[in-house]
Amino acid sequence: MVKATDKQVKLDKIRQQITNDKVCPDLSTAATQLVFGEGNPNAHIVFIGEAPGKHEDLQGRPFVGAAGKFLDELLTSIKMDRSDVYITNIVKYRPPNNRDPLPDEKAAFLPYLQAQLAVIQPELVVTLGRHSLNCFLPDLQISKVHGQPKRYKGNVYLPLFHPAAALYNGAMRQTLMEDFSSIPIVINKLHKTAKA
User: CATH number for the domain including 94?
Assistant: First the structure.
């Protein structure tokens, strides 16, 4: 097993590479800072959102606003916390006025996100929201596949609604909690398959 410190060094290099390559200069100029991702470099689970919002931009950490608090709650509901997982976004700079990331912005950041995943090598990638899902599985609709694990190109993805969606919709909150409760089940199945 690769040591977490070695993986962190590699992740730090990817972070530096984004700056060196001047990815999405318009976004980087408008943003306070790069929000790369955080958590356990040896995590079994990586959560991927779409882009940082206002609070994330100010603190330099992913999912620290209201949606992030709900994500923490969801993690607690499956007896986990942030130190057990890795959390990041597709786009690493906040889009102006929290608008949706544009297709070319997502495309520009995708190789760096794929490099992050290659270093961490999670057993499960949890996509949060349609932007994240469509980066990996472009033909699927989140309303039809949420909570259903999908194997694609050697990785297992679990599409979930974005926690922000639940802030405005009580029914969505329940759906997210139910979908989230399947994470330990999916991980257990993956462990059994790996041993078989």
Answer: 3.40.470.10
